[in-house]
Every structure is written in C-alpha cells, then in structure tokens.
Fold these 2 entries.
Entry 1:
Amino acid sequence: MKGGNELNSVIPDFGGYAMDDWFHGDFREEKELDYTTATAKNRDLEEYTENFHHYRQKNRTEVSFNTPDNQTIDSNSVTVTYNTDRVDVTLEGEDNALRDPSVQSALGITQNKVQAGAKPRYHNWKIGTVNNIDALHTTSIWGGFDPYVVDMINYARDNGIENLIALLLTQTEVNFLGSLTGFLIAHILGTPAIWSWQEYTLLADGTELVRVWDVSQYPEHAGYLGDNWQATAEIEWQANQNINEAFVNWGAASRTPTNGPYQAVKSVYKAEFNGDNLLPTSSPVMAYGRDENRTDPELSASEVNTMLGEGFAVDPFGNRETY
C-alpha cells in the first residue's frame, strides 16, 4: 500500500470484496538498500501485539570452503547452507469475512495468523571453473503459499464456487464484485506459489556472481549480496487500481501446467534456461556480482553473464527437500 490509499496495493481490492481486505500486505513503499533493514521484524499491525516481517519469504544461500592459493578449492571443505525462513500470513481485523466464526468453521480456519506453507526446495552444487579459477556453483529453487487460500480453494472444490461466494459475502445478494471475488479465488488463483530460482557462484579468489533465473510474477523480488541490495525484479504498479496485472497473471499461471518449477515437467522447464536448446536461452531475471576485492563498482549484469556464459551452471533439481 502506498500513500495511505487502500487501492494503492498490488493485492486486489474490488471495493472490499477481495484479498486486499482479508490479508495484510507487506506495507513496503520503497526497497531497503541493506539486507539487515529489509529483513528486520518491525512491521507493526494494529490487530496483533507482536511485530512481523516486511517480506513474504527468503531464499538465502550461505557457502564456505578452504582454498590454499586463491585459485583452487578444497572439495572436502565445502559447506552449503540454505535458508528455510517462512513468515506468518496475517488476517486483517476490520470487516474481514475470514475472521467471522461461521466462515472460519466452514473453512477449517483455527487461527488469525498462520505460518506460510512451503513448497519443496530443490538444490544442488558443483565445483567448476570460471576464467581458469575454481568456482563453487550453487543453486536453489524454493517457494511458499498462503494456507488460507488453500482452505478457500478446497472449500470451493468440495461445495461449489457459488457456496464459497455466498459464504464470503456479507451482503444478502451475490453481486458482480462478489462473483468476481469467487472467480479469482476458485478459477484464476488455483493454489499459487511465491518462488525464486537463484544461482550463486563463489570463486576461489573471492569473486561472487549471482544469477536469478526465474521468479514468480508476484511479489517483487530483491537480490542481495551480503548486506547490500543489488537488484529488484519489480512489479509494474499504478495508483488507484482495483487489481494488478502481475497479480492476475501470477494467479493464472498457477493453473498453467507448463509454468514454473513446481508445475512444468522438469526437463521441459530446464530446457528454457540450459543454453543448449534450439530456441534462444532465456536471460536471467537478475544478474549481479562483485569482484575479489568486494569493492564498488560492483560487477554489472553483462559482466556476470559474460563470465558465466549462457545457461545455468548446475542442474537445480539434483536434490529435493520438503518442510
């Protein structure tokens, strides 16, 4: 939400009939230039006594290894750690149908805040070379989802869309806005996931290279190295819009069997990015890095792509973990 206007939000509103009236947004008007501030738990919500994060999820990778000469990597010393942080999804308090006891009972909701659901994490790593220097290539795909939306989807599937609409509306008539709400939930949204695919490469000389190959269309995704912001995959936004195009496309994509790492056949999905395809290889959503001295100016996207070449460095589907 921007400027105190409830329509200045990416989440659909439709006069209070849709999700912007049910779930809290991130309440972020500008990106933070440092990771520490961006991930601080300082979002104050009037319905709760505790503070919350300003983000939906983190996909963070930490690595370490020993190098005897800043040119080679001791493979036995490699450690790779993946972040598994999931934040709470919180329900707004004023005129929120999802807080109504009868609605909660019908949908099986027992809490007004719940930890976001988690998709499987895919990850892998290998040692290769970049400019004749040993390089540790790591990759991670991870995503999450809103459990409340899953509750609504399941109810619609079991009881019919019209009954979900009737359950959520506070009026006696099923009007256009209410019908559109039900359509968004039961037809467009499916069970959409927020996810990102990032590839982090650390050379033996200390050079760091990052390519974010693909992300969900919602929300915005910000990339950091250490504590420093590097790039953002932004969402186009306009003032006073009832619904955001990127949000709708994100929901619609959740019902497209060829879209993203959790729905598409893995080999088909990888072919778009592998640099060995008859069709042009898709470019990373974000690419950034810093040289061995870790000083400004940092490496540009074109410099990173030139150093790493076309296509991803390591198969992201080598390992699978569930949470």
Entry 2:
Amino acid sequence: MTPHEAIRQSLESIQTDFWELDPKTKQPVRELKLHEFASFLACERPLPLNATILRDFAGQAIKPKALGEKYHPDFDFSSTFFTDDQPFNNQYMFVGLNVAARTGAADTREWWNFHDKKLPTNTFKLYLELNQDERYRGCYITDVIKNTVDSDSANVGQNFFFTKSKKLSFIQPVSDQQRAAKLFEWDKNAAATALATDQPYERLYASMADALQEVVTNHEVFNKSARLFVAECKAINPEKIIVFGDTAKEALTQMLATTAFDNEPAVRKLVENCAEIRHYAYRKNFNAWITEYAPKAITDVEDTVIIDQ
C-alpha cells in the first residue's frame, strides 16, 4: 500500500455524520464521505513554478487565459496520486471556510473540491499563491464548515456568527431563538434598505420559523464540523495548519470552545498556532498573486508566533 493510499483509507474510514437527503422525503439516504468535502494539492498537470511564469511573462500581464494557452494546466485532481510511491506531505494542512460552488450544485467526483475548472479564476489564484516552490504540493486541503455551499463567505460569516454579532455565536450561552431573531432582523433591514434605494431584494426568511430552522441547521453543522475537523487532523497529523482568511480562522478559534476539542491537546495546539494567509478569492490582479501573495504565503507561515502551552 502506498503512503497516499494509506491516508486515503484513513480519511474514508471517518464517519462524517453528514448525509445526502432524499429530495422528496428529506430523509437521509447516504452518509457523505470526506472525498466530497476535501482534497489534496495535487493536480493532473500543474503550473510551472512562479519563477518560470514570471520569466516567461516578463513585461506582460498575467491572465488565466494566457496561462492556460501557454502551459495547458489541468487542475483536475491527480489520477495517480494514490498509486505513486511518494511519501505523503503532512508538513502542512490547508483550511478554507466552506465550499464555494457557483453553478448551483457541487461536483460529485471524488476529491473534486479545490480543483474547479468550470469557473477556474480562483483555482488559478489558489495554485499561484501556493506555487512559490514545491513545499505545499500534495498537502491535504479541506473546509472548516462542511456541507455548506455558498460562494459568498460573507453569508457564512454572518449566518454562523463568525463575523457579525459574535456574542450570538454558537459557543455563547444564548438560545437559538435569539440567534434567529437577529437573522430575521438583518433580513428585514436589508429588505427595507433595498426598497428605499430601489434595489431588488428577495427576502431570505418568510417568518421567524424559517430563520429558526436555518439557525438550528447551522448550529448542528458547526458542531459536526468541529468533530470532523478534529478527526481529519488526527488522520493527517500535520505539522502546521494554514487557514485561508480571517473568517476561517475565526471559525476554528470558536471551535476550540466546543467539546470536540476536549482531550485533544495536540489538535488544539495546531489550531492555536495556525497561520493565516490571504484567501485566494481576494480580488487582486494575477501579477500580485505571484509577486506579492505567493512569497507571503511562505513568510507569513514561517513568521507565525508559536504558542507553547
């Protein structure tokens, strides 16, 4: 058994406690697997290292179309990853916030996440940011909030109370009814603002009951995601966790207060010492991803202050 295959089997043996629901009855029909949430930084045909790109494009604007025409990268997950004999790179483990499928439905291929080719702009930016050298290739990459599809991280940050009204977060001693009241208030205010400025807006919640249902669902997802994240860390055993953006880091920080981290000092220390780098969805030209953010994706990790408790 190859090292990569051993990791795959370890991950696939984890019970996610997330379920595919029957569209009519809404009853669970199949437990989802980690290959539907996570992946590895291993592409079928990766880009050359950034130094080569900068040399080849000296004096030219770097755009996805031009990169594609010159190098013909294939961002599909590597078809040989689990059969090659290379050692598994567990030096780093990368963590995003949630899956950002933009076409209305997520891909159903195994290990597809972080390998999007339908709308590849952010995929280019992800692999350019982590392409200063080869240290990150083959690393495990996952989302902290599982089974939650939204291309706008602001929605997730708000609906899980990571970025707004943190006093209502799922680790605080308040009721889901109080949280639902806040969601309903935000929705009502947004509708009023849209009306006043003659902008279209579709209400998210027809009633408080609708808002409460979302809160109850998100509360359950938060707790399940915390337990699953701990299991992933124990399977991967990374030396360092790297998170994309401050919202994902806040989510992980809040999860430290859940029971999932009880009696898990090694995983707790990993989260406490995680490094944060720029999220690849950040709007910036492609030259900046190579000349500015790729170097920082190394220096910001190396400069992280280690908390030793």
